[in-house]
Write a structure and sequence with these properties.
By secondary structure, the protein is mostly helical. Among the domains are: 170 residues, HUPs (Rossmann fold, 3-Layer(aba) Sandwich), CATH 3.40.50; 139 residues, DNA Cyclobutane Dipyrimidine Photolyase, subunit A, domain 3 (Orthogonal Bundle), CATH 1.10.579.10. It is built from 22 helices and six strands. Strand 5, helix 6 and strand 6 form a beta-alpha-beta unit. The longest helix is centred in the last third of the chain and has 24 residues.
């Protein structure tokens, strides 16, 4: 195994040459060639093949990789290479799996994938687990076609992964990257549990520019990270080569997964049901990307803050579970630059800069979900105004049930609980009102994170934590005019929403109403 980056401050091997993209001579080629979803998917497949026949014929950028073990040399056990899948739940467009296949092809070894299923995870309900399992079922089917062994393991990774390594006599392990505490603890525990002679590395296949390459510190905001990321896009925003049918079969085959048994293994709340407006899996995610490009992208720049209009991508659930790649989304959206330049630029800002800023915050700030993670000015202003009289004091139950004096807030909460999604603009208003209506900023943040993680398909995500922290604690923002309760934290109100969109129409859409609360005036 050649030596990749081994610390947060990534090493600097020679820059890779960017493969020529299909749209490099005509940025509008995707838009002009494809008019149906099947053609869209076929065109993506063609782009991968045009990029390279396989990962061995592609110059893989080793800056994507962090070596976690002291051992660098592959062993001679001969059992194969293991890709431990967690955050990136897809086969194609996955740099971690591609790197694992690169090692396996180079050493002529079998290729295995494992996923460790735990019965509970940070309050996730069947809404999130069901979406994930159906996506993983698609992963298994694709792996079978590609002669890659997919193992669904039940239990903690620090037990399951070392056991599989020993059982199959595996030669190296490639893992996904997540900046969050629990997944990072999984990595640390597995690192201590696997044989010392087995190389162990981690690939950031979630961000276009790996988080440790984009910056070596917590960034103040989008304005400080934007140039750092944009300066590196030519190096990292490349087409993907395909994951191919693996030519080196495994002696020990993976057992076919009993998906009903996997569902029965879960110990989760099933009262928050799965939603039917969205279909899990990579194929459906890419079809939704096509729908966005064809129907909604043209409105994205001007209309994305209007919750009454279908102008958003709706891709966050698939992106959260890694069922589609953000890099693939950008590659395809860029093809519409000539037709919808402002919208393409706006989408790239949100999907690259803002999204990767969230990973940066969570990676370099272990207090990404509590007030200690806020800037000093924000902590101070919230403390000064902690005892200010609130215009309303509402219970967690009133908030969860959407029974407040604010019909717009209630409609937003109903959208979240009913659909597993809340419009991005309303997420800001929603969280800021929780600050205004609860006794302390600590309680507000706790409730906002709880509700988001319980009901949203993309809960427990860096972007979700950062969204709550921005709204309540002012991270990635600046101080504003002092006011009660908020101090210098940016304020949003009902009248401001009325100026931006038709509030009555949105409230009517979800059948919401205001509930009278004694002593409380309407905003």
């Amino acid at each position: 195994m050649s030596k990749p980056s081994s610390s947060k401050g990534a090493s600097k091997p020679p820059a890779t040459k960017k493969p020529k993209l299909e749209s490099s001579d005509d940025e509008d080629s995707s838009a002009s060639l494809v008019t149906d979803s099947s053609g869209f998917l076929a065109n993506i497949h063609l782009k991968r093949k045009k990029c390279a026949d396989n990962i061995l014929e592609f110059k893989f950028n080793k800056k994507r990789c962090r070596l976690l073990s002291k051992s660098m040399e592959l062993g001679d056990c001969g059992g194969g290479i293991l890709y431990w899948m967690s955050r990136e739940q897809r086969v194609q467009d996955n740099w971690a799996l591609l790197y694992a296949q690169r090692l396996a092809l180079k050493m002529k070894l079998p290729l295995h994938i494992c996923f460790c299923l735990v019965p509970t995870f940070l309050g996730a309900t069947i809404r999130q687990f069901g979406f994930m399992l159906k996506g993983l079922e698609e992963v298994e089917t694709e792996c079978q076609k590609l002669k890659i062994e997919f193992h669904l393991l039940k239990g903690e990774s620090q037990i399951c992964v070392p056991d599989l390594i020993t059982k199959l006599k595996l030669d190296a392990v490639v893992a996904d990257f997540s900046p969050l505490r629990v997944p990072l603890s999984w990595i640390d525990k597995v690192k201590e549990s696997i044989p010392k002679n087995v190389p162990f590395c981690q690939i950031d296949a979630h961000n276009i520019v790996p988080v440790w390459v984009a910056s070596d510190k917590q960034e103040v905001g989008a304005r400080t990270i934007r140039k750092k990321i944009n300066d590196k896009l030519d190096e990292f925003l490349t087409e993907f080569p395909p994951v191919i049918v693996h030519p080196h079969p495994a002696k020990t085959k993976a057992k076919s997964v009993d998906w009903k048994a996997a569902d029965a293994y879960l110990e989760v709340d099933r009262t928050v049901g799965e939603v039917d407006w969205i279909t899990p899996g990579t194929k459906s995610g890419l079809q939704e990307l096509f729908n966005f490009c064809q129907r909604r992208l043209k409105m994205y720049a001007e209309k994305r803050n209007d919750p009454n209009l279908a102008a958003l991508s709706n891709l966050s659930p698939w992106l959260h579970f890694g069922q589609i790649s953000a890099q693939r989304c950008i590659l395809e959206v860029k093809g519409y630059k000539t037709k919808h330049a402002k919208s393409v630029d706006a989408y790239m800002e949100e999907t690259i800069i803002r999204r990767e800023l969230s990973d940066n915050f969570c990676f370099y700030n272990t207090n990404y979900d509590n007030l200690k993670g806020a800037a000093n000015w924000a902590q101070e202003t919230l403390e000064v105004h902690k005892k200010d009289k609130r215009p309303a004091l509402l219970s967690a139950q009133q908030l969860e049930e959407g029974k407040t004096h604010d019909d717009l807030w209630n409609a937003s909460q109903i959208q979240l609980t009913r659909t597993g999604k809340m419009h991005g603009f309303l997420r800001m208003y929603w969280a800021k009102k929780i600050l205004e209506w609860t006794e302390t900023p600590e309680e507000a943040l706790r409730i906002a994170i709880y509700l988001n993680d319980r009901y949203s398909l993309d809960g427990r995500d860096p972007s979700g934590y950062v969204g709550c922290m921005w709204s309540i604690c002012g991270i990635h923002d600046m101080g504003w005019k002092q006011r009660d309760v908020f101090g210098k934290i940016r304020y949003m109100n009902y009248k401001g929403c009325q100026r931006k969109f038709d509030v009555v129409a949105f409230v009517h859409r979800f059948g919401a109403r205001a509930y009278p609360i004694k002593g409380v005036k309407y905003d």
